[in-house]
Amino acid sequence: MATDAGATDIYTDRMERHATEAERMDDQFRLITRALGWMLHPSISQSLGKNPSIADFATGTGLFLQSLANSYPDANLDGYDISDAMFPSDCPNVNLRVANLKEPSPVNLHGVYDLIHVRWLTAAMNPDDWELCVQNLIPLLKPGGAIQWTEPDWTTMGHIRGEPDSRTTTMTDLSATFRSGALAPRLRHGWSTLPDIMRKTGLTRIETDLVSSDRDPEIRKPLTENGLIALLGYVRMMAAKGFPGAIPTAKIDELEKTAKDEIKSGCYVRYDIHTAVGFKSN
Known about the structure:
This protein is of the alpha/beta class. The chain is built from 8 helices and 7 strands, in the order H-H-E-H-E-E-E-H-E-H-H-E-H-H-E. Helix 5 (169-178) crosses helix 7 (220-241). The longest helix has 22 residues, at 220-241.
């Protein structure tokens, strides 16, 4: 897991890393966790000891590990990300390091972790990356250790009328822009392929979980507002980089106002959220 990861950081081709995006991603993390109904899959939480070693890849601000710190005060909590741009200046009880999941893991980390957690990497992955990453993670597990990996199926994304007079046209068009073009091939993998990849690479006791993002009515609006921030950031970056077919900046400002009005009218987003869990043999 080399620390010089710029050559494979395809996430920044379409999205940005800065303080505002870090705040949005933390809010998204909390909302998705609420949709899931748990931080740790039940098959893992039932067997995890009091002082586990836990790694979080694509850790961002380290929020997943920070959220576990109170429940596991004696745990070893290590967060890894391809960039340190979102690392907080102070992250008590959590160790944050730059590492590239798409590179082989260093020998000194082999057999260290009881749990490896990964979430929401779809935009940063090419179709062939998923198996490579699982192969790189397995040596890091202790015997009996587990990988928990959660990804959205954005091919199922739709914007729904929450009220009889809700409007959804602009939000639907913005999400279609995100799901088309160069990103489209990436969105069909991960959520659909991880269980079979885990089996193929030798993990056992594979478990899967599927939940709808709108399961909890109270998070529908904030999750839709959070998604709009991401969609606007995406189309603005496309315009700034001069990508073919990019929406003009002036038009984006108009779309932002209309989209916010649609959310106020009751429009909300819905998509499937998949989790795959696999254990290393004892």
